[in-house]
Specification:
The protein is of the alpha/beta class. It is 39% helix and 12% strand. The chain has an eleven-stranded mixed sheet with strand order 1-3-2-4-6-5-10-11-9-7-8, with helices on both faces.
Length: 487
């Protein structure tokens, strides 16, 4: 068996039994990357020296009796999480060459767990996009079909795991940026409850929406990856300070569950192949003992509009720090004002510029209440309607995305069409609730289809129970082969 095809759970068993080593696992994924990166471009940086050192240390720890679940496992992290001494760019020219002086809390916890961080993955600039076509360093391609996008903004993290150049990875999800690439790349992708995973060291896009989460090949892998990084962090003022739900040992099975199909997220605008796969999976959950009901969240129809006021407004405030004065790119000018203007003009790409302008306008005098304030009221409606829906169902379900992976350039000329890619995922971000995508089959072109499960806040154990139930009844999704990704 090729080591790059292992799940994390299988790799851990082999490490425990002495059938492989962390050094051998790292060599296998780096070798795979050397053959696929020219085509896929999942990584912006592969930290050869740091990863090799971490792998040797992991083997030494294991020899001394350590058995942390991620000890020696090669993982990748999205390049908007700071890594001390390793470039962190958020795929933007404005941070080209930036070397952070500290690790993000997630990175620090991974290192403490003995995980081997292979490198930093490509993304839409500052996590703004749904296709990873907006990176200043070139797009990432889908391992199932390199003429198609891997999804975004965490497309690099998804492509790396799907291709075998990492066994697991982490992305950030502001409006679906983990779940949508997971659906496009045939992976399990999970967004935790807001505050469950520290955002300290995550370069902010929209602070009230951003959340870090894992990509895995299986639900068990995603559980191990989540447990390794969740928990309170005093450095993050929004970090949840209560008891953290651990999910690796969460029960499985659909028996007795109330599963609510969200009418507004599973009807209009969904491709036939996606709708059919979703319906078949719902029927199989019912056959497995779940009680399926239809629920309505009327405000979900307004979620996309509210999101594209709230998120740009927050991004316009967060990106104001990139001014050419303190760090990152600096383009000289005759005055401070001209220097800042030139720096941002040269440093920010068109999608970032579009969202900053939209957000600044929404926050401007005379428009704040009409746009931003109204969007926040819609957000409150969504939260209340989700709470009401959870009175009728334990979890809510929908397709993860309206379509399977689309071709490069298909939506770049039409921002509204691109934004619609996140129509099913955005409501969970606005509500702050946990949500996940599980692969349930492929369309007629062999492209993966995702099934979204949503749960109430801090109900990660329930969420993972249902994720396992869906995985058990789902149609198989073949992994992309080396020949397919290396063309």
């Amino acid at each position: 068996m090729n080591l790059v095809d292992l799940t994390i759970a299988d790799a851990r068993r082999m490490l425990q039994q002495g059938e492989t080593t962390a050094v051998e696992l790292l060599e296998a994924v780096v070798d795979r990357a050397s053959l696929t990166e020219a085509d896929l471009h999942a990584y912006l940086t592969i930290d050869h020296d740091g990863a090799a050192r971490a792998a040797r240390q992991a083997d030494e720890r294991r020899a001394a009796g350590d058995d942390d679940p991620l000890l020696g496992i090669p993982v990748a992290v999205k390049d908007n999480m700071t890594t001390i001494g390793v470039p962190t760019t958020a795929s933007s020219k404005v941070l080209d060459g930036y070397l952070p002086p500290y690790d993000a809390t997630v990175v620090k916890r991974l290192k403490a767990a003995g995980a081997v961080i292979v490198g930093k993955t490509n993304l839409d600039e500052f996590a703004m996009g749904s296709s990873t076509e907006n990176s200043a360093y070139g797009p990432t391609r889908n391992p199932y079909d390199s003429s198609r996008v891997p999804g975004g903004s965490s497309g690099g993290s998804a492509a790396a795991v799907a291709a075998g150049s990492a066994l697991g990875s982490y992305g950030s999800d502001t409006g679906g940026s983990i779940r949508q690439p997971a659906a496009f790349c045939g992976l399990v992708g999970m967004k935790p409850t807001y505050g469950l995973v520290s955002r300290y060291g995550l370069i902010a896009f929209a602070s009230s929406l951003d959340q870090i989460g894992p990509f895995g090949r299986t639900v068990d892998d995603a559980a191990l990856l989540l447990d390794a990084v969740s928990g309170h962090d005093p450095r993050d003022a929004t970090s949840y300070s209560g008891e953290t739900p651990k999910v690796a040992d969460a029960d499985g099975g659909a028996g007795g569950l109330r599963v609510g199909v969200v009418r507004e997220l599973s009807s209009q605008g969904i491709d036939d192949s996606v709708a059919d796969a979703f319906s078949r999976t719902v029927d199989r959950l019912s056959d497995a003992g779940a009680n399926v009901v239809e629920v309505s969240v009327p405000a979900a129809d307004l979620a996309l509009s509210a999101y594209y006021l709230i998120a740009p407004a927050e991004c316009s405030a967060n990106l104001a720090r990139f001014d050419g004065v303190r760090y990152g790119l600096r383009v000289e000018g005759d005055t401070v004002e001209s220097m800042m203007s030139a720096t941002r003009s040269d440093g920010f790409g068109p999608e970032v510029t579009r969202r900053v302008l939209l957000g600044t306008y929404a926050l401007s005098a005379g428009y704040y209440d009409a746009f931003y304030g109204q969007a926040q009221r819609v957000r409150t409606m969504i939260i209340r309607e989700f709470e009401s829906a959870y009175g009728r169902a334990d979890v809510l379900v929908s397709p993860t995305t309206p379509t399977t992976a689309f071709e490069f350039g298909a939506k770049t000329a039409d921002p509204l069409s691109m934004y619609m890619s996140d129509v099913c995922t955005i409501p969970s971000n606005l509500a702050g609730h946990p949500s996940a995508s599980v692969p349930i089959g492929v369309d007629e072109q062999g492209l993966p289809i995702g099934f979204q499960i949503m749960a109430p806040a801090l109900e990660e154990r329930l969420l993972f129970r249902v994720m396992r139930a869906v995985e058990a009844v789902a149609e198989p999704v073949p992994r992309p082969t080396f020949a397919e990704v290396a063309t």
